[in-house]
């Protein structure tokens, strides 16, 4: 069912963009979630409400996992689950930036089978279905063919360069660049605009599920920081970081990471 799920996700993402863009950055009401969980705006909640209503009506037998919905163990009993971030990059949205995204995915028994990342302010719609390739605005995309890590541009936040993350505290040489939305970073690597991305802190499933499939369908490798394939719909929906790139750059990054560096914020 990946193909029909993808059509459903595309339609839902476009409608999410219509809703979110009615709000104007800093004018959208914003508040902080409890326990330092980050900001949320009225746009996040409006988009989430529409997605939950429409997607669950279309697929009532699918489970539901979203950043803006209280989690329920019911999803653990479902073979297929929606994994949703209504707005990835809420801080950027609230500041009036154009680099926030809607991130929508369907998983089946832990594997992503359909995915969309949509940036309405940039008119960029990345999409993929299992074994059908990845596209940007309907055209096929592929990861970079870069081989040498020293020549690579890697999307990463600055704390990822903490020497404690790396074997013998030797940070590999590459050019670090940054974009605020984690989903957008993954999409940019799938597009070949950048050679790889990494985030070494524990990562919420809704931030990375869509990007995982889009990257892999674009010919890249996407794993946790230890090189394990990403699996979704876990009881605690957080994964051990993300390393994503073409095969050569991915191996060069992953093999230099210190597996004992788990827990250092990055």
Task: Report on this structure.
The protein starts with a helix and ends in a 12-residue tail after the last helix. A hairpin with a 2-residue loop joins β8 and β9. It folds into 2 domains: 2-140, Fructose-1,6-Bisphosphatase, subunit A, domain 1 (Fructose-1,6-Bisphosphatase, Chain A, domain 1, 2-Layer Sandwich), CATH 3.30.540; 149-261, D-Maltodextrin-Binding Protein, domain 2. It has helices at residues 2-20, 42-58, 90-95, 182-191, 205-217, 247-254, and strands spanning 30-32, 39-41, 63-66, 80-88, 101-108, 111-119, 124-129, 134-136, 139-140, 153-155, 175-177, 196-199, 203-204, 221-223, 238-239, 242-245. The radius of gyration is 17 Å and the shape is globular. The strands form 4 sheets. A 7-stranded mixed sheet has the order 3-4-5-6-7-8-9, sandwiched between helices. It has 6 helices and 16 strands. It is of the alpha+beta class. α1 runs antiparallel to α2 (42-58). GO terms for molecular function: inositol monophosphate 1-phosphatase activity; metal ion binding. Keywords: Magnesium, Metal-binding. Belongs to the inositol monophosphatase superfamily.
Tell me the span between the first and last alpha carbons.
36 Å
Radius of gyration: 17 Å
Question: Tally the helices: what do you get?
Answer: 6
Spans with pLDDT under 50 lasting ≥5 residues? none
Strand content: 25-35%
Total number of domains: 2
Structural classification: alpha+beta
CATH topology name of the largest domain, in short, is Fructose-1,6-Bisphosphatase, Chain A, domain 1
Fourth CATH level, the homologous superfamily of the largest domain: Fructose-1,6-Bisphosphatase, subunit A, domain 1
Level of helix content? 25-40%
Corresponding CATH architecture of the largest domain:
2-Layer Sandwich
Keywords: Magnesium, Metal-binding
InterPro entries: Inositol_monophosphatase-like, Inositol_monophosphatase_CS
Cofactor: Mg(2+)
Family: Belongs to the inositol monophosphatase superfamily.
């Amino acid at each position: 069912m990946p193909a029909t799920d993808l059509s459903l996700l595309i339609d839902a993402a476009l409608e999410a963009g219509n809703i979110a863009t009615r709000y104007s950055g800093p004018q959208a009401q914003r508040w902080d979630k409890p326990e330092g969980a980050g900001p949320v705006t009225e746009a996040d909640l409006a988009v989430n409400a529409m997605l939950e209503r429409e997607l669950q009506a279309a697929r009532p037998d699918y489970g539901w996992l979203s950043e803006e919905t209280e989690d329920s163990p019911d999803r653990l009993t479902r073979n297929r689950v929606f994994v949703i971030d209504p707005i990835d990059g809420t801080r950027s949205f609230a500041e009036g930036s154009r680099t926030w995204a809607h991130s929508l995915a369907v998983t089946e028994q832990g594997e992503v089978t359909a995915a969309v990342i949509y940036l309405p302010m940039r008119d960029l719609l990345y999409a993929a279905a299992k074994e059908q390739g990845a596209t940007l605005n309907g055209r096929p995309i592929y990861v970079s063919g870069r081989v040498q890590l020293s020549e690579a541009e890697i999307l990463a936040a600055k704390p990822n360069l903490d020497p404690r993350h790396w074997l013998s505290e030797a940070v590999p040489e590459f050019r670090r660049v940054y974009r605020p939305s984690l989903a957008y970073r993954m999409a940019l690597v799938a597009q070949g605009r950048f050679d790889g991305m990494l985030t070494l802190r524990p990562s919420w499933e809704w931030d990375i599920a869509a990007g995982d499939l889009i990257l892999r369908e674009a010919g890249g490798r996407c794993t946790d920081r230890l090189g394990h394939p990403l699996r979704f719909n876990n009881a605690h929906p957080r994964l051990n970081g993300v390393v994503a790139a073409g095969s050569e750059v991915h191996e060069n990054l992953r093999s230099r990471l210190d597996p004992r560096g788990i827990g250092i914020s990055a």
